[in-house]
C-alpha cells in the first residue's frame, strides 16, 4: 500500500513517514500544499494523510479539488484542536476521517488501516474483464462460466490487475499494491504469482486469448493490444 503524507511541519511529517515505513507501507512526503496536490492528483495512492493548514494550498482546497476530479483516494485530515469548525468542513469537502493534533502514532495507524479497509465510493464490488468476472464480496472468480479457485494472494493480484485493465503494471506497482504487509518479497515472487494466476486463468482456456500478458522489460498487462 502506498501512502502520501502532506504536512508542512517537517518533524511531524518525517516521524509519520518513519513510523508508517516500519509498518511496511511505502510513503511519499510533501511539505507544501500545491506540491502535495500535484502528487495526489497524478500518482496513485491508497490513502492520503493531509494536514489542514498548509502553505501553497490548504487541506480543504486539496480535498475539494481531488473529489471534483473524481479522485476518491481515502483522506485522513490532520487538524489542530482549535480548528474544530474546519474539521466539520473537512468532512463536508470529502475527507473520510480526521485526527486532532497532537495524536499518538498508534491512533494514526489505526485510522489509516480502517480507511484502507473501507472500499471507496468508486470501487465496484463485481469486476468484469472480457469473459472473466471477479466478485470481491464472496471471492468468486469465473471465466467462461467455469469457477476458478484462487489463493488469497492470487485473488488480490487478480483484483489489482482487474482494477487496472489494459494498463502496464510494473512488478513494483504490483509489489506496492498487493504485497502490503509482507516484507519478505524475493525478486522472483511476483513472477511466481503471475505464473500461478496464468495456470488458473489462461491455461485451462487454450482456445481463448490469454488475459494476462507480459510486456517485456516493463511488466504485466491485463488484456491484449488489439
Ligand atoms: Ca500545518
UniProtKB/TrEMBL annotation:
Keyword Phosphoprotein listed? The answer is yes
| Species this protein is from | candidate division WWE3 bacterium GW2011_GWC2_41_23
Q: Set out the biological process GO terms recorded for this chain's protein.
A: regulation of DNA-templated transcription
Limits of the OmpR/PhoB-type domain: 124-224
Output the Gene Ontology terms for molecular function. Answer: phosphorelay response regulator activity; transcription cis-regulatory region binding
Extract the CDD domains matched here.
REC_OmpR_DrrD-like, trans_reg_C
Cellular component (GO) terms are: cytosol; protein-DNA complex
Q: Which UniProt keywords apply?
A: DNA-binding, Phosphoprotein, Transcription, Transcription regulation, Two-component regulatory system
Q: Name one Pfam family in it.
A: Response_reg
> Which segments constitute the Response regulatory domain?
2-116
* The protein's name in its UniProt record: Two component transcriptional regulator, winged helix family
Modified residue annotations for 4-aspartylphosphate: 51
Asked whether the keyword Transcription is assigned, the reply is yes
Q: What are the leading ranks of the lineage? A: Bacteria, Katanobacteria
Q: Which domain of life is it from?
A: Bacteria
Quote the DNA-binding region ranges, renumbered to this chain.
124-224
Q: Which SMART domains match?
A: REC, Trans_reg_C
Amino acid at each position: 500500500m502506498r501512502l502520501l503524507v502532506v504536512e508542512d511541519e517537517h518533524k511531524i511529517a518525517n516521524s509519520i513517514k518513519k513510523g508508517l515505513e516500519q509498518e511496511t507501507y511505502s510513503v511519499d512526503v510533501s511539505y507544501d500544499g500545491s506540491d502535495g496536490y500535484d502528487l495526489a492528483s497524478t500518482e496513485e495512492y491508497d490513502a492520503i494523510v493531509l494536514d489542514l493548514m498548509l502553505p501553497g494550498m490548504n487541506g480543504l482546497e486539496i480535498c475539494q479539488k481531488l473529489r471534483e476530479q473524481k479522485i476518491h483516494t481515502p483522506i485522513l485530515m490532520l487538524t489542530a484542536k482549535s480548528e474544530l469548525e474546519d474539521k466539520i468542513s473537512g468532512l463536508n469537502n470529502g475527507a473520510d476521517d480526521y485526527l486532532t493534533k497532537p495524536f499518538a502514532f498508534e491512533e494514526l495507524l489505526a485510522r489509516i488501516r480502517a480507511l484502507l479497509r473501507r472500499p471507496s465510493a468508486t470501487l465496484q464490488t463485481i469486476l468484469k474483464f472480457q469473459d472473466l468476472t471477479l466478485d470481491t464480496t464472496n471471492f468468486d472468480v469465473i471465466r467462461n462460466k467455469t469457477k476458478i479457485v484462487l489463493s488469497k494472494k492470487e485473488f488480490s493480484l487478480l483484483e489489482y490487475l482487474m482494477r487496472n485493465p489494459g494498463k502496464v503494471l510494473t512488478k513494483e506497482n504490483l509489489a506496492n499494491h498487493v504485497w502490503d504487509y509482507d516484507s519478505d518479497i524475493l525478486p522472483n515472487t511476483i513472477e511466481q504469482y503471475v505464473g500461478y494466476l496464468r495456470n488458473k486463468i489462461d491455461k485451462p482456456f487454450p482456445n481463448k486469448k490469454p488475459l494476462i500478458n507480459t510486456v517485456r522489460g516493463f511488466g504485466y498487462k491485463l488484456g491484449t493490444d488489439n
